[in-house]
């Protein structure tokens, strides 16, 4: 949940305890996270990022911002207010400007089907936030500088990451060093785990943020790292002068 400017924006929400063979291992989502939501930002169409039953928990009038090519799928599932954005396109939610950024991740809904370009979001109001969604390393030079908070994925829900499509803690730290945000927040960890991996829960669910922080201390000690466990929050930093 991002409270930026006058808007409450929910990113890639999975609000229930189970999606297919993936189980929530963290505390349930607090009910206040699902009320007064101005828009949902979807980075791509994978089931652990676009979960229609989770979206139905929200008010049906909530605006959904999603990658180009998503509208038909979402409208078939009952969501009328859908704004599609291709890379470089933008829209506004209240006083917040959202620009879609092409990231490096296969974003289609099913293994066989129409290709969808996954996106991150450059979110600008009084503070500037970059939400990367899911991605492998890509050229971030056009984004670097002026970011107050970068939300970067560092792990996943399975036994290993395909590094052609994802960031591990070390790759995420390298991206943060290139982006030079004031604050880097690791995301996409510590929440969901595939069935049968309980014995590896410490390795897969708890260790990634420590690895990220250690790499950041070496690569970009000037960037503040804030590790938020699921359910924790932090205030956005005041805009740099």
Question: What's the short version?
Answer:
The protein is built from five helices and 15 strands.
Note down, in words, how this protein is organized.
By secondary structure, this protein is an alpha/beta fold. It folds into 2 domains: 71 residues, no CATH class; 108 residues, Ribonuclease Z/Hydroxyacylglutathione hydrolase-like (Metallo-beta-lactamase, Chain A, 4-Layer Sandwich). 16% of the residues lie in helices and 28% in strands. The chain has 5 helices and 15 strands. The strands form 3 sheets. It has a 7-stranded mixed sheet, covered by helices on one side. The chain has a 5-stranded mixed sheet with strand order 1-2-5-6-7. A 3-stranded antiparallel sheet has the order 3-4-14. It is globular and about 45 Å long. The two termini are 25 Å apart. 39% of the residues are buried. The mean pLDDT is 92.
């Amino acid at each position: 949940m991002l409270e930026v400017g006058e808007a409450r924006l929910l990113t890639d929400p999975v609000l229930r305890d189970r999606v297919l063979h993936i189980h929530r291992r963290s505390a349930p989502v607090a009910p206040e996270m699902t009320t007064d939501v101005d828009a949902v930002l979807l980075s791509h169409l994978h089931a652990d990022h676009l979960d229609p039953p989770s979206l139905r928990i929200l008010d049906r009038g909530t605006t959904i911002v999603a990658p180009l090519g998503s509208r038909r799928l979402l409208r078939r599932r009952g969501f009328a207010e859908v704004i599609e954005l291709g890379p470089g396109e933008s829209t506004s939610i209240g006083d917040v400007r959202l620009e879609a950024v092409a990231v490096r991740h296969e974003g289609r809904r099913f293994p066989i089907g129409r290709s969808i370009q996954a996106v991150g979001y450059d979110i600008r109001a009084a503070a500037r936030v970059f939400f990367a969604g899911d991605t492998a390393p890509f050229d971030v030079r056009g984004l670097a500088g002026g970011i107050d908070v970068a939300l970067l994925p560092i792990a996943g829900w399975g036994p290993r990451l395909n590094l052609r499509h994802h960031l591990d803690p070390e790759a995420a730290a390298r991206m943060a060093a290139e982006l030079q945000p004031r604050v880097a927040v690791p995301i996409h960890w510590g929440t969901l785990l595939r069935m049968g991996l309980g014995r590896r829960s410490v390795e897969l669910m708890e260790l990634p943020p420590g690895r990220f922080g250690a790499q950041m201390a070496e690569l970009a000690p000037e960037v503040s790292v804030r590790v938020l466990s699921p359910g924790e929050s932090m205030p956005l930093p005041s805009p740099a002068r």
